[in-house]
């Protein structure tokens, strides 16, 4: 598969024999699973917590009746960016006693002024009571919550999919195989922060220039004993690295300066480094 970059063929860099991958370097393996679960739970939680209230307000909207004898024990709407969050305590008479119901809802609005509202209830069901503002913004609230559910749910699925890809690759790496050298484009460089999750180590995100769809950039961590190999080409304004693709994996590993991530002989390392340096000199030609 061809790419849009002017890169020489790296196919001859690695030996034509089965090679053991000592260290894959993939970052965030189990973090992907953790984040996927958290986002999935938040998405489901939004449905469980928010949508029953939306349905109750939908019923009011279908058959509303004002409750003039009701009053607001407390009420406020706070605006943050384009989101408005409203809370109110509604006091209303019920069977000779005063009942108080708390309502809370959010919607998207560019309005920074005050909101006028009355108390409304579902005809025949006086305990299903809320503010007219909540009814007026019902579809706004539903679409906003739907966007959150879809966005978080889809992100959770993508995270889970990447976790499966990484897990499958790690499993495949246990078996020696003839590896295919491929070029990768460096998209992000930095240091892992804090303790755990690779804190203090070189964190590099790379993207194979062929073979993967957009959005599948791969983060990797280099230990203090490893030196990442990268080559900047001013003509293309891109930084490139070499990666190795296992036939049983969809994700290639990024190679280091000394090829320590692979189990090679000293002669094979010397030949690989010489071939790589020769390719680097030809990049952009």
TrEMBL record:
Tagged with keyword Membrane: yes
Chain ranges passing through the membrane: 32-54, 142-164
Keywords in alphabetical order: Membrane, Transmembrane, Transmembrane helix
Top-level division of the source organism's lineage: Bacteria
Name of the protein in question: DUF3592 domain-containing protein
Native source species: Novosphingobium clariflavum
